[in-house]
């Protein structure tokens, strides 16, 4: 039986928008920080009070970005779990346990592959279901969407590890520039994911509608037989 995933989808869309806003703010702070260090190296002097104010703003933005990221991850897992369970009830080829959707993020090494694998299989299953059961022409599914998301996720993950491990060993300007690259890549990944998510939500709504129409038809047939 399919259960509605609309409210979870709405919450995830809000989470995506919040994360985009906080990521833009974080990137802006890094660009300002880079500008400050560049001018300071050229001999420009700043008022201490202004620097303290900027550091406070930067700290607040960083915290908000972390909170937005955590909120996004939690809501995404909740939405992903329901979406996967719904498709699993329609397609027996989705034999991977639904619990991998949750625990696949927690197990080292598996968390780099399993979420991508399940998301890809679920999406292909949804596209296949619609092609078999309707004549609806959907926007063409681009498999590289999920591949790009996965590659970007791995790249961001590795760059973050490198950034933290080298933070005390190399020039601060290099760390800031690395942070700018990571934040820009994160934003690009978010936009790609938002595009994919909008595509999947349309499929999800269509599948839900089809299943309920089929149930109504079956119920009508049963009533006719009884009569």
From TrEMBL:
Superkingdom of source: Bacteria
UniProt KW keywords: Membrane, Transmembrane, Transmembrane helix
Domain DUF4328, residue spans: 54-196
TM regions (residue ranges): 12-36, 57-79, 99-120, 141-162, 174-199
Protein name listed in UniProt: DUF4328 domain-containing protein
Listed InterPro entries: DUF4328
Zinc-finger in keyword set: no
Cited Pfam families: DUF4328 (PF14219)
UniProt KW Transmembrane keyword: yes
